Amino acid sequence: GSTVGLSYPSSTATADVVSCPAAGQITCIAAGEGTTGSLGGTPPAATLAWTSGSNWSSASVPSSPSAVTRIASVACAGTTACIGVGYGYTGAAAHGVILADNATTPGTITEDSLPGTVTSLSQVVCPSSTACVAWGTGSAGPVVLAGTISAGGDTWNAVSLPATITTLNQVACTAALACVAVGNGGGTGLAASGPIYGAGGAPAAGTWVLSNPPSGFTLTNLSQVACPAALACMAIGAGTVGGVAGLIVTSGSPAVPANGLGSVLNWTRDANPTPAPTSFSQLICPSATTCLVTGANASQAIIYSGAPGVATLTSDPVPASTQSLSQVVCPSGTVCVAIGSGTSGPVVLSGAIGTPDTWSSPAALGIPSGITAVSAVSCPNATSCAIAASTNDANNNPLAAILSGSPGPSATWSSAAIPAVDASTLYLTGIACTPTGGTATCSAVGTSSTGAVIMMSKGGPGGTWNDDTADAAVSLNGSPTSNIPIEVTNSALTNQSGANGAWNPVAATPSGSANTTSLPDIYPFASGYGVFAGDCTAEDTTNGPGTTTAATTPGNTFVSPSTTVPLAVLPIQVYSSVGVPESGDILTLTATTGGCAADTYALQSTGPDGVSRTEVPFGTYTLKVKLPVGNTSTTYAVVVAPGKVTIGTQHLLPQPATVVGP
């Protein structure tokens, strides 16, 4: 007989963030999660990898005083240090985490001390080489932290926020070290502004004060804000005008205070042009005098353009076939690229920003045939961009693709050659390029059915892409669930019903214990076996990404794992009925494939950001979301397929499928 060694994939490893700041010795940074403590309701451990432009290396994430679970955002303070924020656990208690990586000695990660009780941090920005601002939630509501960054260590202090702000959505800071925060409280959209530091300067944190409420309309929420200049900001949100609810764009001019106290910010409502928006997706300001707001009117995408501080917006001409826009990037003040979807497939628009703005037609962009979706774009300069995209293989399963091109008025896009070893990449979780006027270094991270993927091009978006996964493989571990049953087949194999070539089940390991690492004493067919994760023939995904091949040799016992069992990625984000992420919810998944056993898998409990991300066998399930105390729960029908998750509607990976908890 033969013994086949089994291992489980690392497909959840790089699903958080990749950035290429080119800060000192750090060219790019990727964050993921490891296997430590990842089974059942125990949270996983975060991982970091970095590259200096040649090879990727793993960075050791401190395990004390915090067990770091997820790194949600990374920003670099010039060449001084790179800062990662997220959350971790001490026992069962969740708390915010800030990690610092000195840019002159990359890979040496330290955990900064935080003031007060911070439960989670979601974003960080660094407006200078010595100052960063992080925000998230605390035990008493939203939290903003002002950081003084130095090569010798960092100091963080809590900014004094108005008590009326109960939900904080975004913070924007200027080079003059003044910031604006937007959110809501008590059903009213609120904004506050003030300095990063107080009257005594760093490290004392500043005091932010509420902005003056606008006249002529009522705000119910402010979702995004951008401040492209020291005295000019724009924000988007929702409100009512004349008793009619709708979406609203406002502009304001914050002063830079000299007394250490926040200056009052006066907002005015910008006149939304026709067509009126039904949804907003992004606010971006390519220059100090121009901001763009993307959204939709029913099934038609819209782009508004205007100067912050000036209460007049114009509607840019957008091709009628464009239904939605998911991301806009502007590598210069005069060139932008927008990606989204249209009536006939993916859309990439190239914009010339001026008076007026002009956007190219999707048909004129020459998107390669077979591209089914575009998910992220990065432009290192005004003449080149890289786009993370998707296509399909011969079995109609998703495969990752990379497009490169110039964002000029007559832009065309071509498919970059994916390294042969990464040909089975299912999707890309992120793509980033170093900001440069010359040749950039670009990195794309994602996953195949068997493991994490890192690709890099040192020749910019259109250069040669190489596989760099092995460089940092030690830190890129996935988070598979436990108790996974395995099935094997061979064309000469006969099962109990007398059928040849049928799948034969290998019993699942006892509930809660580790997944089986070997299939011992199986007949050594020269052609080997097909292997997949499942419990009966109906769950077979033969010839798809859910099946792998295991070699067998008479009398041979494989000392190390010889095959990786493909698993699906299941990212879930749970919100409460009022739209707040639910922390600590218990998630279980029960198989519902007809004729198969009702196997139940314990998923990660949700973190402070409401996220649970685990690898499970492909198939159909019932998802149960239960509060950590009591028996209150909700259930959802789930279909987990290669590259996508369906819960009510289809969610393309890596975006999490959102549900409302009990």
Describe what is shown at a glance.
By secondary structure, the protein is mainly beta. It contains no helices and 52 strands.
Provide a descriptive summary of the structure in words:
It is a single chain. The chain has 662 residues and is mainly beta. It is built from no helices and 52 strands. The strands form 13 sheets. Strands 46-45-48-49-50-51 form a 6-stranded antiparallel β-sheet, with no helix packed on it. The protein has a 4-stranded antiparallel β-sheet with strand order 2-3-4-5, with no helix packed on it. Strands 6-7-8-9 form a 4-stranded antiparallel β-sheet, with no helix packed on it. A hairpin with a 4-residue loop joins β14 and β15 (178-185). It is globular. The model is unreliable at 36-41 and 256-262 (pLDDT under 50).
Per-chain topology:
Elements: E1 2-7, E2 17-19, E3 28-33, E4 46-51, E5 56-59, E6 67-77, E7 81-90, E8 93-102, E9 109-111, E10 118-125, E11 131-138, E12 141-150, E13 153-158, E14 167-173, E15 178-185, E16 188-195, E17 209-210, E18 218-229, E19 232-241, E20 244-252, E21 267-270, E22 279-287, E23 290-297, E24 300-306, E25 313-315, E26 322-329, E27 335-342, E28 345-352, E29 358-359, E30 373-381, E31 384-392, E32 398-405, E33 413-415, E34 425-433, E35 442-448, E36 452-457, E37 466-467, E38 486-489, E39 504-506, E40 518-522, E41 529-533, E42 547-550, E43 563-564, E44 568-575, E45 586-591, E46 600-602, E47 611-616, E48 619-626, E49 633-641, E50 644-647, E51 649-652, E52 657-660
Parallel strand pairs: 1-43, 44-52
Antiparallel strand pairs: 1-40, 2-3, 3-4, 4-5, 6-7, 7-8, 8-9, 10-11, 11-12, 12-13, 14-15, 15-16, 16-17, 18-19, 19-20, 20-21, 22-23, 23-24, 24-25, 26-27, 27-28, 28-29, 30-31, 31-32, 32-33, 34-35, 35-36, 36-37, 38-39, 38-41, 41-42, 44-47, 45-46, 45-48, 48-49, 49-50, 50-51
